[in-house]
From TrEMBL, chain A:
Belongs to the ABC transporter superfamily. SUPFAM superfamilies: P-loop containing nucleoside triphosphate hydrolases. The keyword NAD does not apply. It holds the Pfam family ABC_tran. Keywords: ATP-binding, Nucleotide-binding, Transport. GO terms for molecular function: ATP binding; ATP hydrolysis activity; ATPase-coupled transmembrane transporter activity. This is ABC transporter ATP-binding protein. Residues 14-257, 273-494 form the ABC transporter domain. The keyword Transport applies. The lineage of its organism: Bacteria, Bacillati, Actinomycetota, Actinomycetes, Bifidobacteriales. It comes from the Bacteria. It comes from Bifidobacterium moukalabense DSM 27321. One of its GO terms (cellular component) is ATP-binding cassette (ABC) transporter complex.
Automatic annotation (TrEMBL), chain B:
This is Cobalt ABC transporter permease. It is a multi-pass membrane protein. Keywords: Cell membrane, Membrane, Transmembrane, Transmembrane helix. PANTHER family: SLL0384 PROTEIN. The keyword Membrane applies. InterPro entries: ABC/ECF_trnsptr_transmembrane, ECF_transporter_component. It is found in: Membrane. GO terms for cellular component: plasma membrane. Its main location: membrane. CDD domains: EcfT (cd16914). The chain crosses the membrane at residues 35-68, 80-105, 117-141, 245-263. Pfam families: CbiQ. The keyword Cell cycle does not apply.
Length: 496, 274
């Protein structure tokens, strides 16, 4: 079983022999001919470009890939000699999206959920719940604490606690910190370290930001395409971090990993933003949804300048961004634009404008790209802006195709936006906003959960929009992004 | 020097346990009992259509709820929707019900007679008597506790119940999604024009987003061993106590007294006969 006589968790071993998986709707195997062995207690960082099959392998290890109707399996994937699909409870998976992993209303019940599914006795369950909450640093929380108002970091730690309470010998973390602010990343990292110090579980973690986990892992496995002429993924490197990074550094960086110690090219503006025209400004603005989050705010944004709104989670940065974008009504005061940007016969208050007036003036990229998609294919998605601005079909599609080319999305033109990968969706959401050529570009966390490749593309896009004379306002926690663009930093913080 | 934008400090977020009912008595009950009680209370009331039984039941309801910690004013405030429905049925029965007795008022198809006025009043009281206690019972009901009761007491399949429970949690997320979808459409120049068409398109997007959310949630649940063939245990106990049985007795007594009174006073009128 999962615990020895003293009650400690026994680490699990993993063995993949010629393992492969093909999703029922795909022609090619996502992964094929995968061979590796992970000894009990090893801590593995799993790397690979987006689409290399990392999440497929994690789902396979967690036994949630599904049955024969969902895909075809080859070879074997065993945990302690048991087929992973039958080894329920032997592995515990924490995934990327903090919202998707809270199952029940009260923290204690949520933690107990997995134990109930394993059919454990009541006393054992509550003992484990308390131990697990303790180890992830949520021991201070009452077990009836509501899960509604948790931060992302707390949510991910709660998910970790729920998994730990099942006493899995194998801990699977699939980009658990990708959607978190730096504070949340640290919380989750520390919780996992605490877990490993106490339980010595086997660990497999997927993460683009290698340095987050580097101090906890002793082995790196890289997935990729062993043959250039085939789309099938497999293991392309396996060894200690030093070995793998010295040999594979370039390949990994190209595949999107943040390889430690790499230089990032600067995209600082060539001349300073001083003396440039003000295009958008807040005039004694109070913003908020039902009650004011911030009051009497005066701030100016200039053409050709990138301004970064930073600050702790939950202080209202996104709400401020939506207000500046003319999407939320100011509680008091005004958001105003330069006279040259004013639509005809409108007041200088973007919130009162028609939706169409915003096109070409103020564009907003939302945190969740999926909230933005409206068309059934990528090309039409990008065409919506120019079309609504009254351009001819010919002109519209010329703009759309040019934008797709620039964003490296051309081959997806006929695809449905929802079928794209995370990074591609992000690029598409930016492309469709830029197609309307707004003078003010507002972005909410443009680099959340991005791998290095998409991140670099995003930086280049922002820099080129800036150099073309747009004002860029971005809400971000990403210090590297701010430094690389040498952005003007505006800290949103609580008043004393 | 870094620029700052000052925001109002977070108020200390007090996360006090929510009261599961405005009534101290109902709060003690198993959530399942609230349903059973409501059924016991309202089903017999369908038997007779008269003013006496309904008004008696309603009076007893109000009195007992007051003893139970919910004063009449609060009952009225929390059940305003019921009263609107009751007035609606009063108006339609009065105007369009079968005429009998002296005609008091006539306008086209509408005829207000003594009989239809009486039937309207009886219907008004009955709708209130049936729905008011049910609404008050349901206030503050904790979904998790209800799910536990459904599985452990009524023996409904746990996969079904807990799957539904987890799905309900998504409703809050979908409300946020709906708002974001609307804002993003405005930002993309699609916010003008026919509101009906816009809502329809946006609802379709919400459907897509909700399916994706549901899939993720299902995977998270499966990863924690949900949906397996092994028997599931229960971290929480859901049991019926003496107070639940007392509650059932009260819920049976109210319609019994009310209907008996109607019968004895001669007001009894079979609902399912003209």
């Amino acid at each position: 079983m999962t615990t020895d006589e003293a009650g400690a968790v026994v680490a699990a071993g993993v063995k993949a022999v010629d393992w492969g998986w093909r999703h029922a709707s795909r022609k090619d195997f996502a992964l094929r001919h995968v061979d590796f062995e992970i000894r009990p207690g090893e801590r593995v960082l799993l790397l690979g470009a987006s689409g290399a099959g990392k999440s497929t392998l994690m789902a396979g290890l967690a036994g949630v890939l599904g049955g024969d109707d969902e895909g075809e399996q080859e070879g074997s994937l065993r945990i302690d000699g048991i087929d992973s699909r039958a080894a329920r409870g032997r592995s515990g998976l924490v995934m990327q999206d903090p919202d998707a992993q809270t199952i029940l209303e009260r923290a204690g019940d949520d933690t107990a959920f997995g134990c109930e599914n394993l059919g454990l006795g009541r006393d054992v369950i509550w003992k484990r719940v308390r131990e697990s909450l303790d180890v992830v640093g949520l021991g201070y929380m009452r077990t009836d604490h509501s899960t509604r108002r948790l931060s992302g970091g707390q949510r991910q730690r709660l998910a970790l606690a729920g998994v730990l309470a099942m006493h899995p010998g194998l801990l699977l973390l699939d980009e658990p910190t990708a959607n978190l602010d730096p504070e949340g990343v640290q919380e989750v990292h520390d919780a996992v370290r605490q877990v490993l110090e106490q339980g010595h579980e086997t660990l497999v973690v997927v993460e683009h930001h290698i340095d987050v986990w580097l101090d906890l892992v002793d082995r790196v496995i890289v997935l990729g395409r062993p043959n250039d002429d085939s789309y099938e993924g497999g293991v392309i490197a396996d060894g200690t971090p030093e070995e793998v990074f010295s040999v594979m550094g370039d390949v990994l960086a190209e595949g999107g990993a943040w390889v430690p110690g790499r230089e990032i090219a600067s995209h600082a503006p060539t001349r300073s933003g001083h003396g440039r025209d003000v295009v958008l400004y807040a005039d004694d603005l109070s913003f908020g949804r039902s009650f004011p989050l911030g009051e009497h705010i005066n701030v100016r944004f200039h053409a050709g300048e990138v301004a970064a709104l930073t600050g702790r989670n939950g202080v209202g940065k996104s709400t401020l961004a939506l207000t500046l974008a003319g999407l939320l009504k100011p509680i008091a005061g005004h958001v105003r634009v330069a006279d040259s940007m004013m639509p005809a016969r409108r007041e200088n208050d973007p919130f009162t404008w028609k939706s169409r007036d915003l096109l070409g003036r103020i564009g907003m990229v939302f945190q969740e790209p999926e909230h933005q998609f409206v068309a059934s294919n990528v090309r039409d998605e990008v065409a919506i802006g120019p079309k609504s601005m009254g351009k001819s079909d010919e002109e519209t599609y010329a703009i759309a195709d040019g934008m797709l080319e620039r964003m490296n999305l051309k081959r997806f033109a006929p695809a449905n936006p929802f079928t794209l990968s995370g990074g591609e969706k992000r690029r598409l959401s930016v492309a469709s906003m830029l197609a309307a050529a707004p003078k003010v570009i507002i972005m909410d966390e443009p680099t959340f959960g991005q791998d290095f490749t998409t991140w670099t593309e995003m930086v280049e896009l922002i820099a080129s929009a800036r150099d073309a004379g747009s004002a860029v306002i971005m809400v971000t926690h990403d210090e590297t992004l701010i430094k690389t663009l040498d952005a003007r930093r505006i800290v949103v913080s609580e008043e004393e | 020097m870094t620029e700052t934008i000052g925001v109002v400090p977070h108020k200390e977020r007090h996360d006090e346990p929510r009261a599961t009912s405005p009534s101290w008595f109902i709060a003690k009950l198993n959530p399942v009992s609230r349903f059973i009680g409501a059924m016991l209370l309202c089903v017999p009331m369908f038997l007779s259509l008269d003013v006496v039984s309904a008004s008696t039941a309603l009076l007893i309801d109000f009195a007992l709820l007051w003893i139970g910690g919910v004063n009449p004013l609060m009952v009225l405030r929390r059940t305003w929707m019921v009263w609107i429905a009751a007035v609606g049925s009063f108006v339609s029965v009065t105007l369009y019900g079968t005429a009998s007795g002296a005609i008091l008022f006539r306008f086209g198809l509408m005829a207000v007679s003594e009989g239809s006025l009486y039937a309207g009043a009886a219907t008004f009281l009955r709708v209130a008597a049936i729905a008011v206690p049910g609404v008050i019972f349901a206030l503050g009901l904790d979904p998790t506790d209800l799910a536990d009761g459904l599985v452990q007491i009524l023996h409904l399949p746990s996969k079904f119940v807990y799957g539904g429970l987890a799905g309900m949690r998504m409703v809050t997320l979908l409300q946020d999604d709906w708002r974001a979808l609307g804002l993003s459409r405005r930002s993309r120049g699609l916010g003008d024009g026919s509101a009906i068409r816009r809502v329809f398109m946006q609802a379709f997007s919400l459907l897509v987003v909700s399916i994706r959310r549901g899939t993720k949630l299902a995977t998270a649940m499966e990863a924690r061993g949900f949906g397996g063939d092994a028997p599931r245990s229960q971290a929480r106990t859901s049991r019926l106590h003496g107070v639940d049985w007392l509650f059932y007795l009260i819920c049976m007594a109210i319609p019994a007294v009310a209907l008996l009174l109607a019968y004895r006073t001669g007001y009894w009128h079979w609902s399912f006969r003209n």
